[in-house]
Design goal:
The chain has 159 residues and is α/β, with parallel strands linked by helices. It contains 5 helices and 6 strands; from the N terminus they run E-H-E-H-E-H-E-H-E-E-H. It is 50% helix and 23% strand.
């Protein structure tokens, strides 16, 4: 379990960006992310859900959310299941690249909860099954990083 001595210190909201593609799985990742927010003291009315068509679109939606300046952190949730074509590599790689670019460009934590798996069973295992809930883990990473960045900014302002 994450250490929730971390709390969102910076004012703002949490945006959870969720892929509709493979919604059977992303819905479970979303449940984990929302549970994590609650455990960290983030009120449900301080969490915005942003639905996108697929994992590929997470980067563009994250950039638009970041540009608003209203979020302390973002959580990106999706699932890419390997098939028989190279499509998996393109989608998974671009989802990771797009989300990372937003995090770095805006100095804004973005929890990466995009599952890249070989089978539907592996996805289910990682969305609340035997391997835990990676949506919960992605939200915890985003919230903890938002706290760290707030502490760094506060320390810088004091010096």
């Amino acid at each position: 379990m994450p250490d929730f001595s971390y709390r969102l210190r910076r004012s703002g909201r949490v945006a959870i960006l969720v892929s509709r593609y493979n919604e059977l799985i992303t819905g479970k990742l979303l449940e984990g992310a929302l549970a994590c927010c609650g455990e960290a003291g983030v009120a449900r009315d301080e969490v915005d859900l942003i639905w996108v068509p697929g994992a590929f679109e997470l980067g563009a939606a994250a950039a638009a959310a970041a540009k608003t300046g209203r979020y302390a952190c973002l959580v990106a949730l999706g699932v890419v299941i390997r098939g028989e074509t190279p499509h998996f590599e393109y989608v998974a790689g671009e989802a990771a690249r797009g989300v990372n670019e937003v995090a770095v460009s805006y100095a804004l934590p973005v929890g990466f909860g995009v599952l890249t798996v070989d089978t539907l069973q592996q996805a289910m295992d990682r969305a609340g099954g035997s391997a835990g809930n990676k949506g919960h883990e992605a939200a915890a990473a985003a919230i903890q990083t938002a706290d760290v960045l707030a502490q760094l900014r506060a320390h810088h302002a004091e010096s």
